[in-house]
Amino acid sequence: MSKFNVNLHQVIFSLSDALDLVGVDQIYHGKRVAYIAAECGIALNWNKKRLDDLFLAAILHDCGVSSTAVHTKLTNFEGKNVGNHCDIGANLLQKRPLLAKLADYILYHHTSWAELQGLDLSEAVKFGANCIYMADRVDILMLNGLQADANILASKDSIRRQIKAKSGRWFQDELVDSFLQISASEAFWFSMEQVQNSGYAPTWVADHSAQAIDFQELKDIIQIFSHIVDAKHRYTAQYSEGVAKLSRYLGELFKLSEHSCDKLELTGLLHDLGMLRVPDNILARANKLSPSEYFIVQRHSFDSYDILKNIAGFEDIATWAAQHHERVDGSGYPYHYNEQKLSIEARIIAVAVVFMALSQKRAYRDKFSPQQLISELNQQAQAGKLDKSVVLMVENNFTACLKVAQLLDDII
Ligand SMILES: [Fe+2]
Ligand SMILES: [Fe+2]
Ligand SMILES: [Fe+2]
Predict the structure, then answer these.
(1) Which terminus, N or C, of the chain has the lesser number of Cβ atoms within 10 Å?
(2) Which pTM value belongs to this model?
(3) What is the pLDDT of residues 383-406, one digit of tens each?
(4) Domain-embedded: residue 165
């Protein structure tokens, strides 16, 4: 397994853009919550280690949400029905050695202080989780306020009043005091419109330099995000994993370098990140999409690129992900590149994507049988859409491909 020279904070900060797409009209919710939480932590003189943990937990706090429907429920300030997104998110983190220590921040980010203070948790976790809860509610109040008046300052006083009213019951009183202190200035609210590079974000990203990270360790973090994509819709469960494994296997058959195969696998996991922006009802549609709905779906590969291009060391991954719906005759999207401009890796990903999509059921069609699958791939190769050499490689190793994509029991 090869090593990747990346800044892990930059990887997570950029990939969390994908989470922020889920709320569609609430872009950057996670980053605003992280901004607010960190400003409170700074006002309370928390040390750097504590601030770093708080910030990381806050940008990931809603990683258990992948559907817009769930996110909409969370926009009610007093709403008690938060579903199971705290458990799902905590579970995702729990399995990862680098992030397991933050699982409780996520698990308790909708738990009131009245309940939280009696639990057997460290002070850092109790205060951190409660700080994220308060920051989350501030952001929800702000977003609700923007619907009535587009000027962010218009709801400032009412937000401060509503948070103060929950002091001691929902939120620990020192946390509330710190919020009242930082939110008194207009600058605090204006910075909320620029959270990508305001407050603690630049420090958190820049303080962590690029270092050689094992492929396996990097993949472990990246799977948080691919699981979210795969959880968005029941028809796509295991989809990104399948594309990743199959692309890697094909890369190995083409005798690409180990590092290229590692990058292919990561591209498979990340290529559909942009799908998180597509509203659930469009993905679940059983009949034909209207032209405007199709435009929304069609921009997802570019949205994936938009997120991945910000990560130094991910240049190839961003490019191949951007091109996963390109076709060798130039009829794909979003660039309309043809054979000459598409690398072997991009052509492998494109075939793996079609392979996995056809082998799974969709709202509008049944899954293809293995015979239908290989004949469809061949047809698309003959028609000049998919790369012939890649499809031939699939055909010559068909049973192994089904096995690698973990479809053997499933599809037959
Ligand atoms: Fe939440
Ligand atoms: Fe949230
Ligand atoms: Fe796609």
Answers:
(1) C
(2) 0.89
(3) 999 999 999 999 999 999 999 988
(4) yes
